[in-house]
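input
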Amino acid sequence: MLRQVDKIEILTLMDNYVDVLLGNTDVVRRAAHAGGGEIFKDTLVGEHGLSLLVTVYNGTKKHTVLFDTG
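output
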């Protein structure tokens, strides 16, 4: 049974964004390119999953859940 609440707040912690043509930085080491902007076929290119911090408010009560698809 669903209950009515006062407010729901959803904070996106990590989005599923991948740009496989970006190069390395001081912080991130990315997959090597095969040449011509292509990536080797055996390279895993997924970098992130979706992670949401969901907070539900009802009166003076607050409940928080981390929804992480990892």
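quick obs: The first strand starts at residue 7 and ends at 14.
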